[in-house]
Design brief:
mainly alpha, disordered C terminus, 6 helices
Length: 137
């Protein structure tokens, strides 16, 4: 059964502070729930969740790819909310909106951070640390 509150709480955090293990467990819970749905939209979300999980598991994950997937998942989740029972549709829509915001906000931060590092001429230790934390989200 989906854990709406746990997912919402996770998405309300600064995603850079979320451990990959915590994120992976949440992803796997949603993958399990989506397996019970027989729609092409649910299957597409499940595939994107798998791609997100794989990217996060890489030695050097791409923060741009992670934020792109978060945004894509958000849009798809908002769209599928209309197919959900009325009692859960609003919760699903809220999660989709939070995913979309995380994807947009993260990619904006990534661009801004990359620009700051380029302005310095070389990546600073702090910038590299920030990039690693962002990629783990």
């Amino acid at each position: 059964m989906p854990q709406y509150a746990a997912t919402t709480k996770l998405l309300d955090k600064d995603l850079e502070s979320v451990s990959p293990d915590t994120a992976t467990k949440n992803i796997e819970m949603w993958q399990e729930s989506l397996q019970q749905m027989d729609s092409k939209e649910a299957k597409a979300i499940a595939r994107d969740l798998e791609a997100l999980k794989k990217e996060m598991g890489k030695k050097e994950p791409s923060s741009d790819k992670i934020f792109e997937l978060l945004g894509k998942l958000g849009e798809a989740t908002v769209a599928i909310a209309d197919q959900a029972p009325e009692a859960t549709a609003e919760k699903i829509r809220g999660i989709g909106e939070a995913l979309t915001a995380s994807g947009e906000g993260g990619s904006e931060r990534a661009s801004r951070d990359d620009g700051e590092e380029e302005m310095d001429g070389e990546a600073t230790e702090e910038g590299e640390s920030r990039s690693r934390r962002r990629a783990k989200a």
